[in-house]
Amino acid sequence: MIEFQHVSKAYREVKALDDVSFTVRRGTVTGFLGPNGAGKSTALRILAGLCRPTSGTATVLGRPYAKLERPGFEVGTVLDAGAQHPGRSGREVLTLGAMLLGLPKSRVDEVLRLVGLTGKEGGRAVGGYSLGMRQRLGIAHALLGRPRALILDEPANGLDPQGIQWMRGLLRDLAAEGCAVLLSSHLLHEVEQVADHIVMIGRGRVLAQGTVAELSRGRGLEQTFLELTANADRSAS
Ligand SMILES: Nc1ncnc2c1ncn2[C@@H]1O[C@H](COP(=O)(O)OP(=O)(O)OP(=O)(O)O)[C@@H](O)[C@H]1O
């Protein structure tokens, strides 16, 4: 389970997050939606232990990331698909990750297969990968330790329609196996198709949360999103 409890984060005068609370239960996919600058990446970075909240707590399986005993087996993160060393092959990146977790090399082949990268692609330098291939590699890396929670920042970025459909299937399968999946996006239609639960944020505050049906209010998610974010902008100005 993933839980944000009253999380706020200020960067000097910018309030990136303001009293954010929500929960992602095991076995569900939660879409974290918000316009540019809403605070999505900041929230995911706090959850992944990459920056500290000003106040409040963000936990995975009941603990802040820094207090997890075996983070590689508990939570997988893909926050920046471009973060891998460009000179290493995809297979080398995964092999290093597997070694750090004490996993056999066979797990590298398993995750390559799981994300649809061929043996030949796995052997190529990451610097020559397309954005879609990097996303797949990032997900393969995150899944090495079969984590029980998965955090993805804009995972559909760079994926073609087949890739997006594949990603949807993968995330649904992981949730069906009991994983708690949290993904950020501003692609409403994409999230609508994969998520059970939606959390909408704007200007650092949770604007609404609920099931896709609840938030669609019979008019579609996009309409609700546009109205809520416009209201948030109005009350901030
Ligand atoms: N390191 C930082 N220093 C100062 N301000 C920051 C920093 N990181 C984020 N911010 C500010 O915090 C706010 C939220 O940014 P964040 O990147 O979390 O939004 P986002 O919802 O992920 O946006 P996008 O969809 O554009 O990626 C923005 O106003 C941003 O300028």
Automatic annotation (TrEMBL):
UniProt keyword Glycosyltransferase present: no
**A GO molecular function for this record?**
ATP binding
Q: Give the domain of life.
A: Bacteria
Sorted alphabetically, which SMART domains does this protein's record hold? AAA
Cite a single Pfam family from the UniProt record: ABC_tran
Which keywords does UniProt give here? Answer: ATP-binding, Nucleotide-binding, Transport
Where is the ABC transporter domain positioned along the sequence? 2-228
Q: Does the keyword Nucleotide-binding apply?
A: yes
Q: Which family does it belong to?
A: Belongs to the ABC transporter superfamily.
Q: What is this protein called?
A: ABC transporter ATP-binding protein
What is the species listed in this Swiss-Prot or TrEMBL entry? Nonomuraea helvata
